[in-house]
Amino acid sequence: MTNVIAALLALVLPAPDLGPVLPPRTSPYIMQLNYRAQKLISESKFDEASKEMDGWPGTVIGYDATALPASFAKSLTQAAKIWQDAMDGKVKFVQSDKPLVQFGFVQDSKEGLAAPEWKDGKVHADIPLNWGAGIAMPKETMTWALAKTFGVALGLQPRSQRFTVMGFVMYQPDTAKFTTSIGVDAAERALALQVFSARETLAAAIAKKQTLIAAVPKLDIDKTYIDGGTTMQGNKVRFAFTLVNSGNVPVRIESEVNCHCVLLRPISTLEANSNFVLEPELDTLEFRGPLERHVMLYTNDPLNPVRDLTIHVLSLPEYRLLPDQLQVVWLNDEGETQYPLTFYPTPGNSVEAVNTQLSRPGVTATIVPWTGDVVDALFGKDPVKRTGSQVVLKFPADYKQGIDFLRVIVISNSKRNAYSEANLQTQKGIVAQPKTVFFGTMRVGQSDTRTVSLEHGFTPFNITSLSAVGPFAARFEKDGDSGRKYKITVFAKPEKSGYINGKIIVKTDSAKYPLIEIPVSLSAQR
Amino acid sequence: MASVVRALLKQERSYYVDIGNWTMANGRQDELKAEALAQVFRTLNPTYLNVGPYEARLGPAYLRTLNEIAGGALDSSNLRDSSLSNQKGKQIGSLWIQGVAYAPGFSTTPAEEITNEAAPPGTIRVVLFSGDRTKAQALATNEPVLFIYSLQGDPPKVVTKTVAATFVTPGDRGHFVGKIELIDGEWRNLTLIELGPEKPDDKLAIEAYRQYLRRVSEENLLADLPRTAGKAKFVGSAKCISCHAKAYSVWKISAHAHALATLRKTGNHIDPECVGCHVVGLRDTSGFRDVATTPKLANVGCESCHGAASNHILWPKKRPYGKAGERSCLPCHTPDNSPHFKFAQYWKKVKH
Predict the structure, then answer these.
(1) Angle A46-53/A186-207 helices, nearest 10 degrees?
(2) Which of B41, B58, B198 to mutate to test the interface with A (most CBs of A within 10 A)?
């Protein structure tokens, strides 16, 4: 009998409506408030729901901007108008004794603008009146900062997208203005209207004491980390995360990746009780070694709105050109110098070096077959036998003295990655390292020291005299027992302000390199 | 970055540390850049600047100089390098800070030897780890430890935890400064502060940057840039008019046609790292040298996207030449330099 009555009632009474759902990028505070209020309404706890709703800004939003200097009064009016217009006049911002938006103003904040945030049921924003060292805050920036705070009160979340009210600053004091008006963009407006509409729906349900079914988008993900193992550089590795909506309304999703190398076919809506396999694809073309990348999902799941999915892979190249990092090469004082680069395919591949391009005239490169042992950090610490070729570089006898940089491009027949590059730092004769001595900014009268290493790759030498030009002095000492290396300590004590150039003059007993000059510079301020 | 760190350091018992890899160490310009950065770091009174594998490439003599410029804060617990103090760790209050570089190929003490050694009693270990999270996790033991690890790209804004260890990263793009608090022996409240244009530039950092540009100019790095010779030579956009008049007229009024002027405004027109994307063929022996010598190759021209045209103007019908598309834009329109770049929208500005 009871079942019959229930069935009849179900035919007569309309089923309760579903509560409203908020979009991703809504402030988590509002998202959770929406969730709590709906839960209470669904349980017919209207008084408690009403109390909960007090924290959700309505049609009149009170703020406290009493500390705002009068010179910025127009900015405040404009900021309020920007949102009032965007919301078709549905909300109003007013100065209030019981404010929901609490502005704090600081004279000089080197930290710049901090993002406004919800704290203890209020929106707090600390806005500097000056920009860094005494540079006045431009009125446009103030308007924007106030508008961004109002945006947070309306339920929007600050983000890093530029040219938007909720994104980064639109005006800076030290650059040209790049837009003439501050306006809410279509996406921001749509989001704010949706949040406002959700609030209205809940307020109406409470007023009519009408129950709702709490709308709960709930996103479950089977895993948050996948190790894709080892792959050949140039391959695209696909990962699969299963997303399940175990809630009763669609989960809405916005996704971001932290590298341009992650390709993603995003999903924007996942219906209730359905699933989707999200397949980020990591393109390893530009990267080798262990790679970790992230896919961030911004959702409307009120209990867990932001998800971080991590993918990992070890990318091994098809071939190697060693050394793969800047290598110092000492050139002979007399005659030519040869230096070999090693090129070899990694196991299972058959790539060959076919040509070279060099950045300095006079240097030549010859490709010759090679087999030998190499220690390659990508494949472990122990030597391994490899077969490939050597690119033998030949530096002429009259090659540049001192430090120079050579770029070598090796062209291969690889279809994945035709070019590979090696960079060499050539050193010939007696070489100062660093090449120039830099003291940076100093106060007039202040003293400081720097150390320079003076070295010959092969032959011992003696320093016969050391002198300085400018407000500098220097002394030297032997560095080790080889007789090829000295440590020169340079002292600076500027007596006047300005950019000062000087030099250290080193005389040696080397017949070939009797004089070495090391430029020194600093910027002195009072 | 400097203005944010300076503001954060106003709070009591706050310390500034860096995991390293702030230079690519790939030539003279990177050396100058490293010195400028070290100069800025010094003004922030850093507690520990870890030597990453890239800094380690500079060699002992250069690291000693950088350490002097940085005010002595540069160190490593596992790099065997006599020019640094090579402390096993640095005790600051209740923290035991260690700098560990996962630097294959360098003379280093294995990372696990450093992190397995007992920290002084009553201290909490912080490892500035120049390696990825997987390796950091492999090093974690059962003691409470904070690993600040390195990650390519922007960081996830979440903290990873195992039973006792906490793992955080600021990413490697210089877009974020991370702040984490030690409360009742637990690492909490990770905040990643995004360094957008709403953070004011730091006066001392600007000064260091100006000095850096001055040194780049004094050493004439633009003229000294390593260049290689391609199969064809760059000839300049003017040569294209006779056959491609319509395309030329579109280009002439585009931003590409006065790309170098935008660099001149900021003083970066002498910086090889910037100039490459504002002229034609900078890294080629037949490419742009300077405005006086190669005026026809100043600004982004036809050959910037289509390639050197000397062969094409001799044999116009010979293929392949001239194919350009989104891939041609990407080397310059990178996320850092051109954050709003969308091919479909930008293409409309130069469509021909």
Answers:
(1) 150
(2) B198
